[in-house]
Design goal:
The complex is a heterodimer of chains A (115) and B (111).
Chain A lengths: L4 E3 L2 E4 L5 E6 L6 E7 L6 E7 L2 E4 L8 E4 L6 E5 L8 E8 L9 E2 L3 E5 L1
Parallel strand pairs in A: 2-11
Antiparallel strand pairs in A: 1-3, 3-8, 4-5, 4-9, 5-6, 7-8, 9-10, 9-11
Chain B lengths: L1 E4 L3 E5 L4 E9 L5 E6 L6 E6 L3 E5 L2 E6 L4 E6 L8 E8 L7 E3 L3 E6 L1
Parallel strand pairs in B: 2-11
Antiparallel strand pairs in B: 1-3, 3-8, 4-5, 4-9, 6-7, 7-8, 9-10, 9-11
Classes of the chains: A mainly beta (115), B mainly beta (111).
Chain lengths: 115, 111
C-alpha cells in the first residue's frame, strides 16, 4: 500500500511569512494527525482529525496555526505568521481506526526553517 | 498529563544486545508503542504493548509492566543499520487515544 504522502519536503521562509503543508494519508485511514518535531525531541501532537472532524486541537497555537481536512481525506496545515521557534519537522500520520492498538503510519515530514 | 522518560543516548557494539528503557507517568494507560526513526526519515512502527509481559518480534522484543509504569525495547544481534532514534509513545485512557511521545533515545551502533 502507498504510504502517507507529504509535501513539500523542505521549506525555508522568513519570519512573519506564511507557509502551508499538505498531507495525503493512507487510503481508508480515517484518523489523521499532525505532529511537530523539534530537533532532538520527540513528536508533539498539534491536531488530530477523525474523518473531517477535529478530535483534539488543544496543543495547536491557534493564533498562528490552522488545519483543515476537507472531505475527510487530504489535510493542510498552515502557519501565519511564522516565528523562528516554528523551525521544526512537521509530520503527518494516519491510522486505520481510532482504537488504542492501531499504530500510526508517518509520512517523511516537511522540514521547515524560519530565518 | 503525561510524563515519559527515556535515556537521551546509548552506544553499543555490533552483534551485541541493548536494552532501551522507558518510564511513564500518566493519568491513565491504554497501550505503549515503540517506533524507530532514522535521521531525516519518518518514525516507523516497531511494537505495541497493552498487557504486561514480553512481546517478541524477530530481533526486537518489547516488555511492559503497567504497575511500574515501565517498558523496555530489547534489540538483539545489533547491526549497524539499527543506529537510529527509538521513540516510546504512550496512549492514555482519554477517548481520543492520542499517543504522547517521549524525547527518543539515540542509539549508536559501532563496529
Amino acid at each position: 500500500e502507498a504510504g502517507v504522502a507529504q509535501s513539500p519536503r523542505y521549506k525555508i521562509i522568513e519570519k512573519r511569512q506564511s507557509v502551508a503543508f499538505w498531507c495525503n494519508p493512507i487510503s481508508g485511514h480515517a484518523t489523521l494527525y499532525w505532529y511537530q518535531q523539534i530537533l532532538g525531541q520527540g513528536p508533539k501532537l498539534l491536531i488530530q482529525f477523525q474523518n473531517n472532524g477535529v478530535v483534539d486541537d488543544s496543543q495547536l497555537p491557534k493564533d498562528r496555526f490552522s488545519a483543515e481536512r476537507l472531505k475527510g481525506v487530504d489535510s493542510t496545515l498552515k502557519i501565519q505568521p511564522a516565528k523562528l521557534e516554528d523551525s521544526a519537522v512537521y509530520l503527518c500520520a494516519s491510522s486505520l481506526v481510532e482504537g488504542a492498538g492501531s499504530p500510526l503510519h508517518f509520512g517523511n515530514g516537511t522540514r521547515l526553517t524560519v530565518t | 498529563g503525561q510524563n515519559i522518560d527515556q535515556p537521551t543516548e546509548m552506544t553499543a557494539t555490533e552483534g551485541a544486545i541493548v536494552q532501551i528503557n522507558c518510564t511513564y507517568q500518566t493519568s491513565g494507560f491504554n497501550g505503549l508503542f515503540w517506533y524507530q526513526q532514522h535521521a531525516g526519515e519518518a518514525p516507523t512502527f516497531l511494537s505495541y504493548n497493552v498487557l504486561d509481559g514480553l512481546e517478541e518480534k524477530g530481533r526486537f522484543s518489547s516488555f511492559l509492566s503497567r504497575s511500574k509504569g515501565y517498558s523496555y525495547l530489547l534489540l538483539k544481534e545489533l547491526q549497524m543499520k539499527d543506529s537510529a532514534s527509538y521513540l516510546c509513545a504512550v496512549r492514555d485512557e482519554g477517548g481520543s487515544y492520542i499517543p504522547t511521545f517521549g524525547r527518543g533515545t539515540s542509539l549508536i551502533v559501532h563496529p
